[in-house]
């Protein structure tokens, strides 16, 4: 009992002292001025017009509006032919994609061909990038199986080339490509080089579902770009996550310039 009384006598003045202290303190942080950079997204797809989206980066506390760059001039070069894209903001309804610069010239590159990108504006900013056209990796099989609760899983299989390091993006959509993807992830063949690779799902689907399955064969630079975006999203707002920077594939700015090589199959799930 004497020990308890001694502890109480020791703690009470300390608690009183702490309660009298102002435990809150305002800290002012001086943030550096943001210097806007050119930002580009440009995906070359065989048989489709050359199109790009050019914006500029904005500060964290800036208004959430697309910072357009009307004076940006965009050039894409292939086999010595340099094409200038016209500034013509366009929203493609069936995909929901927005482009700021377009051309009537169609992408007709073959696997192994190289394309270059150049973006410049009146402020002297200049952005460049390169992409090498990849071949399509065909989907070998799409199969599904129902459990006793009438739910189905999906398995998509393909063969990887054992002579090269390859990267893939796998997506599934329900009913339409204009809807948000049901699954979307990027991966490499590091653990499955030269093997038959299969991507499976949980029992998420029902009889009659229409699934659009897409396998993209992507460049390493695009794989790194996608992975860094995923890491940045996970870190955003999470005080315990390591901050992550988006890995751009372009020089002199931010963004991605790459080509799209894909195989796509549509299946209707039946028992």
From TrEMBL:
Alphabetized UniProt keyword annotations: Signal
Pfam families recorded: DUF4249
InterPro entries with a match to the protein in the record: DUF4249
Leader peptide range in chain numbering: 1-24
Protein name listed in UniProt: DUF4249 domain-containing protein
